[in-house]
Write a structure and sequence with these properties.
Elements (H helix, E strand, L loop, with lengths): L2 H39 L3 H5 L33 H4 L3 H16 L5 E4 L4 H15 L2 H4 L16 E5 L1 H10 L5 E3 L7 E4 L3 H4 L17
Antiparallel strand pairs: 1-2, 2-4, 3-4
Bound molecules: zinc ion.
């Protein structure tokens, strides 16, 4: 055996355990990355419903920003520097502010988790919902289209926290503020007639709403 061959053998012999170690370390890293991306990129039920529920819409991804109606946490109905609030229908916003003022007297703050949305934002929410639920039919139970969502023209608001929706459930009708869907305790719209007659019966979910049949 010439010295060079002996050297290669030695190298091979000493490298082998290192290579095995590297493979194991690499596998561990890949496993961690896969786990992390699975938990961070796959939208959870809550993330999706953030589009139309009491949850936050602050997880802004893609091109959607506050200009499109995305909101950080802790925005109230009085914070009209945010387009999601400022672009709400003026009558809806006025009713919300009257209600929020009285709720404040009861120690409860009304937060806006989602209000007005741009068509781009609504489209993104719908794409995310279809990806999450696997079909447009199931996604439609939670997220409307650009043409049907009352959020796009500024006629709907998603309110948090739990205390706030509980307060609105009890007192909202006095301001013409009505829950519309059984499955969305956070989603409120203006129904001026409710001040005298109470809120109309709820739809089970948006698919039961004639406005969604477009
Ligand atoms: Zn809503």
């Amino acid at each position: 055996m010439c010295p060079a061959a002996a050297a290669r053998t030695t190298i091979r012999r000493t490298r082998r355990p290192t290579a095995v170690g590297l493979v194991l370390v690499t596998a561990a890293i890949i496993g961690t990355l896969v786990h992390q991306s699975a938990s961070s990129s796959a939208p959870s039920f809550g993330d999706i419903l953030g589009g139309d529920r009491g949850g936050t819409t602050s997880e802004v991804d893609g091109a959607v920003t506050e200009v499109d109606g995305a909101l950080p946490d802790g925005v109230t109905v009085f914070d009209d520097e945010h387009p999601a609030v400022a672009n709400l229908d003026p009558d809806l916003l006025e009713a919300l502010r009257e209600a929020a003022t009285d709720a404040g007297d009861d120690g409860i703050e009304l937060y806006v988790n989602s209000g007005w949305r741009s068509p781009d934002y609504q489209n993104q929410l719908l794409r995310e919902a279809v990806a999450e639920y696997g079909s447009e039919e199931e996604a439609a139970r939670w997220v409307a289209t650009v043409d049907t969502s009352p959020h796009v023209p500024g006629n709907a608001v998603d309110i948090g926290s739990f205390d706030a929706t509980a307060w609105l459930s009890a007192h909202g009708a006095e301001y013409g503020l009505c829950q519309v869907y059984v499955n969305e305790s956070w989603h409120y719209e203006l129904r001026p007639a409710a001040i005298d007659r109470g809120c109309p019966p709820l739809y089970e979910d948006p698919t039961q709403d004639p406005r969604m049949q477009q």
